[in-house]
Structure formats: C-alpha cells, structure tokens
Amino acid sequence: MASLVIKDLHASIGDKPIVKGLSLTINSGEVHAIMGPNGTGKSTLAKVIAGHPDYTVTGGDVLLDGKSVLEQEADERARAGLFLAFQYPSEIPGVSIANFLRAAVQARMAEGEEIDAAAYYKRLYARMDMLKIDRKFTSRSVNEGFSGGEKKRCEILQMAILEPKFALMDETDSGLDIDALRIVSEGVNTLRGPGLGVLMITHYQRLLNYIVPDFVHVLYDGRIVKSGDKSLALELEAKGYDWVKRELAAANA
Amino acid sequence: MSATSTPAIRSAIGAFKPEAFAAHLASLPPLPSWWIERKRAAYERFAGLPLPARTDEAWRFSNLSGVALEGFAPAASGPSAPAISMGIKKSARLTFANGALISRETLDPALEKQGVIIDSLRNALTRHGDLVREHLLAQPARLGSAKFTALHEAFLSDGAFIHVPKGIQIELPVGIFSHALGDGIAVFPHTLVVAGENARVSVVEYFGSGGDEENQLAIGANDLYAGHGAQVTYVGKQDWSHRALALQSNSTVVRRDARVQSLNLHLGGRQVRHESLSQLQAPGAFSEMLSLSVAHGEQEFDQRTLQIHQAPDTKSDLLYKNALLDRARTIFSGLIVVDPDAQRTDAYQSNRNLMLSEDAEANSLPGLEIQANDVRCTHGATTSRIDPEQEFYLQSRGIAKAQADELLTFGFFEEVLNRLASDELHAALRALIQTKFKR
Amino acid sequence: MQPPSETLSSAADETVMENPTVGIDQTKGDFQYKVDYAFDAGTGLSEDTVRYISSVKKEAPWILEFRLNALKKFLSMPMPTHWATKDLDNIDFAKIRYYLSQGQKPKRTWDEVPDDIKKTFERLGIPEQERKFLAGVEAQFDSEAAYSNIKDIVAKQGVIFVNSTEGLREHPELFRKWFGKVIPTGDNKFSALNSAVFSGGSFIYVPKGVKVAQPLQAYFRINAENFGQFERTLIIADEGAEVTYMEGCTAPKFSTSTLHSAVVELVALKGAKIQYITVQNWANNVFNLVTKRGVAHEEAEIKWIDCNIGSRLTMKYPGVVLKGERARGEVISIALANDGQHQDTGAKMVHAANNTTSNIVAKSISVGQGRSTYRGVVHIPKHLKGCKNNTECDALLINTNSRTDTYPAITVRGDRNYVQHEASVSKVNEEMIFYMQQRGLTEGQAMSLAVNGFINDLARQFPMEYSVELKRLIDLEMEGSVG
Hints:
The structure holds three protein chains of three kinds. Chain A is about 40% helix and about 30% strand. Chain A has helices at about 40-50, 75-80, 95-105, 115-130, 150-160, 180-190, 205-210, 230-240, 240-250, and strands at about 5-15, 15-25, 30-35, 55-65, 65-70, 80-85, 90-95, 140, 165-170, 195-200, 215-220, 225-230. Chain C is an alpha/beta fold. In chain C, strand 3 (about 135-140) and strand 4 form a beta hairpin. Chain C starts with about 40 loop residues before the first strand and ends with a helix. Mean pLDDT of chain C is about 90; it is low at about 1-25. Chains in contact: A-B, B-C. Chains B and C meet through strand 20 and strand 21 of B and strand 23 and strand 24 of C. Strand 21 of chain B pairs antiparallel with strand 24 (about 420-425) of chain C, so a sheet runs across the interface.
C-alpha cells in the first residue's frame, strides 16, 4: 500500500511563510478533504507538494512511499505518482490534447519502449466518453478557449489516463455549475479505489456531497487545526470558519 | 559610415565589377533586347547606389558590416543537384542549381492541356515575353534593398516562371528547388508566379546549399501576381548554408477579390534579410503574410515587411514568429500603410518572439501609417520566454523540462502552421523545423 | 550686443477678453501685452549670442565653456530628417531671438512683477491656481522667470524650488552634480541647442524622505515673436522623497514661427517618486522640440504625464532610464493634432537593472488635417532578468484627411524578460455620434464627448484641476473643427 506523508512542512513564497508546520498522512484508498478560509495556504500546499518552482520548502518533508520527493523536479514527482488537478489549469496554445497526453504517457515508459497508439487512443476515447468530453477535443490545444467546466473535465481526463497513486485536487469545484460538478465528481468517484489516494482542497462543503471524504481537515494559517470525519465538513458549513477561528483563539488564550 | 567602426573598407560593388557583369551578359543565350537593356540599366543603378549606412532607417538594427559583396563570383554553370524531398505530393517540379535549370518535370499531364506554363524564366522570356515583361521585377523596391534588387536583376541568370490561366485551378503544389553549390559562389534565384482571373495555384520553394560550410551570397527575388479572384499560396523554405549571406525581396500584387497566402520559413544562413511587399490594389483583395524562423548560433534574421492598402475594402493579416536560441538576433520591422482613399481597410500585424537563450536578441519595429479614417488597424509585438506556468503544468504531468520546452516551442509555431490549408504541407514544415532542432 | 529692443506692437485686444476664471488657458493663450525688454541677445545664433547670455547671467566660467561646447555640437549635428519630418527644415535659426528678458531675478510676490507681465499671468489664471492648490509656482516669461515662489511650509522642509539661473548660482554643487548627466549635450541636435542657450526652467531638490503634498507648478509663456524659449529643468528627488511637478505652456499666435526647445532632467534616487505633468497648449506656430528624461534608481518611480494639445510640430519622447533594481517608469501620453498640427510624441524606456518595469500608454486623436505620430523605444539590453514592459498605443481618427503613424522599436535580449506592445487605430464611432445628435447635442459636442471618452481612463489619473482643464481644451479644439 502506498502512502503520502507530509511531515511538519514549512514553505514560503519569497520571504513570506505560508505553510507553517503541516503534517498529514494519506494512504492509498483514502480520500482526505482539506478545507479552510481563503488565503490560509490551501493552494500553496498543493503546489508545494507538486514541486512548483515559486515556492521554497523551509522545513519538514514530503514522502511518497517513504521516499522524500523534495529534491525531485515537478516531472519526476509526477512520474513517481503525484497528480495535481489545478485550480486554474494553464492554456497551452498549439499543443493538442492528444499530443500532450501522448507525451505524458510516453514519459512514463522505459527508454526505447514505444507507445501502442491503437491501445492508447482506445483508452483515451473510453475515458473521454466517461467524462462526456467530445472526441473532437483531442485535436484542440490544451485548455485553450475551454470553459471552466471543460477545463476541469480535462484535468480529470488527464488523471484518468495517467493513473497516479495520489491526486491533489485543488478547488476542483470552483467555477463549476451543478451539472459540470456532477460529471466531474462521477469521474473522480469512478477512479476512486484501493490504488488511489486523494487530497481534495476545497473552500465549500458542496463538493463533499458528491465526493464523500473519509477524513476532513481544517487548514488555518498554514497548519491543520482540526481533523475529523465527514461530519466536520457539515459542522463547518453550519457554523462557518469563524467558529474555528474562535475556538483557536480560545485555545491560545 | 565612419571609418572607425568598419576598418575593412567595403566597396559599393564588391566582386560585381563591370567585367563580371560583361562576362555574365556574354554567358547568356540570345534573349529579348528589352530584357538585356533592363539588365544594363539595373547594373548602372546597382553600381550607383551606396551600401546601406547607419542612418538608413530601413536598415535600423541590421548588422551592416555583415553586408559585404566581396569575394563572390556569379556561379558559372550548374552541376548536378542533390536530391531533396519536400515530403509532399506535387503537380510539377523545377530544379535549379547555381542559377541554371537542371530539371523540369510535369507530374500532372493535365496541366499542359489547360494552358498552365511551368517553365524556366529564360524560356518564358522568349516564348511569353509580354507576360514576363509586365510582371518581372515590376514593383518598386520600397524596403531598403533597391541596390540589391538591382544587382539581382543585373545578374539574374534563370528562374522559375509559373502562369496559371483564367479559371484554372491546380490542386497540388508546384515545387521549386534552388540550390547554391560551392564555396564563394553567388546565386540570384527568382520565381515569378502569375495567376489569372479566378485561377488557383500553390508554390513551394526550397532554398539550400551544398554544404553548411559554404560561404555564399544569395540575392533572390519573387514576384507573385494574383489577378481578379485568384488564389495564390506561396511557401518558401530557406535553408541556406550557415555561412551564407542572403538578401531576398518578395513582392506580391493582389487584385480584386484575390487572395494570397505566403509563408516563409527561415532556418539557414549566416545573415538573412527578407523583404516582403504586399500591395492590395483593388477591393476585396486579401494578403496573408506568415513567417516562422528558428535562429540559432550567431544567425541574424532581418525581416522587413510592408502592407500597402491602395484600395477600399482590402484586408491584410501578418503573423511573424521567431524562436531565438544561442546568440541569435532577429529584427522584425513591419509597416502597414493605408492610402487616403483605402477606406474600410482591415489590417493586422503581429510579431511574436520566443526567447530560448539569455544571449539572444529580438528587435521589433511594428509600424503603422494610416491616412484613411474608416479603418481597423492593429498591431502587436511580444517578446517573452516560455511561460513558466505552462512549463510547470507540463512537468506536473510527468514530462521532463527539456521535452516540455520542445512541446511548447512547437506549440508556438502551430499558430502559423495551422493557417496552412494543406495538412501535408503543415506536417512537412514541422518535420523540417524538427531537423533543425535535432542538429 | 544690442540695446533694449523696440516694443512689440500687437493687435491683441485687451478689453474684449476677460480674465479666465481658473485654469491654464481658455483662449489658447492667443493674446499679447506689450512688453519692454531690458536684455536682448538679438537675432541669430553665434558664439557672441552664447557669450551674451552667459554674461548677463553672470555665470561661472565652466558654464560658459559648457555652452560653447554645446554650440559646436549643435552646429555639427545634422537635422534628424532621415527619420523625422522635413518640416524641421523650415526652422530658420538665423531669424530667431535667443534671449529676451526684463531681468534675471524673479520676484517673490506678484505685486513686484511688472504690470504688463503680471497681467498676462493673471489672465492665464496662475496666481489664482497658486492660492488654491499649489505648493509653489514659477512663471517664466520668454527667457527668464518673472515670478518664483514656494510656500513657506514646503521651503522649511528643505525643498529647493528656484529657476535654473538661481539654481546654478546658489546651489552649484548640487546642480553641477546632476546637470547634463541624464541628457548629455549631444543626445540630439535640439538638446545641444538648449545646452548652448538655455535660460530659465526650474531647479528642484527634495531632501531625503520629504513628501511634497501639493504640486509645484511652472508656467512657460512665450510673448515675443520670432522667439526661442530654451528652459532647462532639473529635478532631484533624494532617497524616499516624493514630488509632483506640473507645467503649462502657451504663446500668442504669430504669423512667423517660434521655437520652444527645453531639456528636462529628472533624478529619482532610491525609493523616490517623481510625477511630471505637462499640458502643452502652444499656439500653432510653435515648433516644440523637447528632450525629457529621468533616471530612476533602486525602487524609485518616475511617471511622465504628457498632454500635447497645441503647437505646429511637437517632437517629444519622455524617457526613463531604469537604473536601479525594481525601479518603475511610466509614460502616459495624450496628443490631439488638429489642422496644421503634427504631434510627434512617444516614450523611451531603457531598462538597465533587474526586475524593472515600465508602462507606456499613448492615445492620440487626429482631427481635420492633423497628424499624430507615436514613436517608442523599449530597450532591455543584456543579461537582465525580470524586466517587464507593457505598451499600448491607440489612435483615433476623426476626419478623412487626418493621419496617424506608429513607429515603436523594441529590443530585448535574453529569455527572462517580458515585453508586450499593442496598438490600434480606429475612427470615431458614427453610430455613437448620431445617437448623441439625436438627443440634441451638436456634432461638435458629440465629437468632444467621444474624444473625452477615448482618453477618459488616462485623464482620470491626473490631478483634478488638470483633467478638468484638459477636457475644456479638448472641447475648444473639437468645437472649432467640426460642424
């Protein structure tokens, strides 16, 4: 069984600390949700784990199957099994989805090994059908001119094709209407299973009605300040984030 | 020029002394006298004009000391040419080596019956003199190279002539190969395309050298004429030797409701200057001007363009993209001119530079001169590196940085290649660019 | 040289026009009062002209030497007509008067200013503006400042605000340290000319950390025919200092041409901010050929706001040399070219340190036979990283005979910088004009609204008094030009 262990992680952008001692263990098969008010470091956490060059890790570690990933480039981490579903996926003009995914799949194969094009397209089309993505999309440039919902479905499509060990889903529900949210959630739920661990980052409880988490954590000021099961999400929804802030203030007083 | 900046004194005529011109004339077969007279007049013009100077706005940012005419000799006769594949199906093929026609193949037998002429300029001068006289080098050299266009006319030995008569549409492109073979030679390639009313033709031209170490001078010119309702596509693939100095002047005339698409790909050469003039002469005319260049090492690609809207309701659209590696330099200087009565002009001009090295230099001079008021004219220029967010996105999918950069660089070219109607040509150009990256 | 010259007779009718209530100018400055000049360098340019100017100013020998060198430079340089308009050849340097004044020492109160000159500035509304919202005013009449004053509260902070003649005399160390360093004498033919015969202009020094809350203003008035005004302005904002400087310019309309050729140098030391605002409303016979440049040190900011409404030919490309890391430069340019006018304006941004940013927004309007030209230079030379430039040029064409040109030049080296340039040309929306006319506006009023709408996003960045003034000037131009 695979594990993703985040140990007392500290990270900053420039001189500004954002993640301040965060610890969390995700085992494959588990779905964790991280919730928190805006500006508490949720998106930063996902990018730091994925290896975004803008952030500097100033302390702690991130271990994938017991091995630190911090010295690895973003692409090495991805090939090791980490997948980041972006909140705002980049638009990449001139690079078609088909070529892009093919390059990504090829990158995971041993040197000299060639992709089986027929099998690849078969799998690609099956996943596209599942996510209700028009097959014509394969010749379109990655994310270019896509609607918010199309971009998010394209993220899930990539996840489905690349079959990561751990998926970090950054505000996957943002900008989605109810239909798009249902399609995306169904996609994630289909991929859910003993081989996949999921870290969902979200501001709202809404997404968790569709993708039911095993664990819920509250992130505040760069740290996890509260953990629980899915009922914690409902409690948060009912009481608001101020409730956590007050509790925290009381505890620190 | 101040004597201090250029210690080596370059002469205005270089190797092209009167004796060389006399020898060139003597080498020609009998040709119409008007043409010989024009060549003589051109030689006088060439000899009388100075080399470009610092104060010439048309040569701003150019490496002037690299523009020297010494040490070259007009190629005498053409040896056999190397076999180059364009990777596309063609309707006809003309091959030139050192300015001489080596082979002429008509691959589609229907063409001759339809009255299509695909021949050498020499033959056309005697057989279709009026057409040639009307269109050959008939447009003014307005982009700074009047001297070199005159030199081209004086020493022009042979070239391609394509005439598609009224109503005839050729589906497959005509291929033209222009080779420069040998060290120290000068070539003067020329292609003249005349498309009659509602005719359609596409031409793909390849320029290459025998070897990458050959020091050569290539002074070429093209004339494209699209008659009423005609459609002309021209693709030039420039892959001269990496020691070549190339100066090319292209002129396009677009008549009523006609449409010309031109794409020039620049890969080779030491210093390459490419001037493109598009004249939109009657309502409904449309000129699409495209260019892609991959500059590496110490290469300099210097592109000057002029879109002249001379009539109302005309359209032009220019997109020039440069990728720069190593210590390469590029210059893009483009001007849109809208004449006073060219109302409802729709003109666009865009130059995008992708910087792939910290020592490369991109110069961009996008210009507008607008004298009509009911117009839509815009231009844009950007110079930037690969977007780090896009790079990270690709890396986050497991693609290594180097490969991510290559994907993004080709993505950068796609916007231009996608404008081509032919998928085959699109793929062939992409493959040619890939060979440069692999070198 | 010559004795005081004859008085200039003028047909300007003093009684018909009333004093403007507020603002730089409501009548395009087209009026003239008789003035007696005590000092006159005569007509034409020679070494003697330069020596005369220097001697009446009682200058130190190094300044005379500087001037004479500049004169040589000027005479040796060609007219830049290989890129600029041939109209420059119509300037007859032999027919211009290079120095005219009533004295070299400006007055500190308006009461002391001679009546004829005072009347001019009152009519232009300067004393009133000073009372209302300015920290200091300098009013230059032909070659010298007639009035110069700074509010006590500002002077007590150590702020120096005098004309250049006084600056050279009273603060020679400070002046000489920066003078001619931002714009060398031989930068162009007209900076050389200015360096030879300069007179007037402002010298400002803002000490470390001092933030001047209200703007300092200079007003440049050309009164004499065939005259050349050559003010020289030097502004130094020391570390962390902030200052806003505004200048207005007018001249009466003569049948012969007049030359205005200033040099303005700005120095913003670490963390300083300088904002320089110009509303130029010269008469249509004025050649306005001005060189303006600033150097921004580390984290400093220089912003040029440049509005060109008047003149026959304006050639002016305010620039910023971004010398220190994280320095910022900005040029906001508005040009309105009416019949017989050519506004050849733009901006120059030279990046010389990492992480510097520059921004250029230029909007031009061509009316009637007017011609507007944008020229820009953006230079990011070598091995720099994190530099950014954004340029936007928009041109609006009102009539079929108007013309607009755009000539940017962008050089970028290296792969760690980002430059973007966008330009567009469009005509005024006829549907919109018709809509407004249908609601009862005249065509002129509708055009004026359309033009003001076109520049609105820029005008809003000006101090209130100036944006109101600009709108009024545009109204005047537009009403006269259509319908």
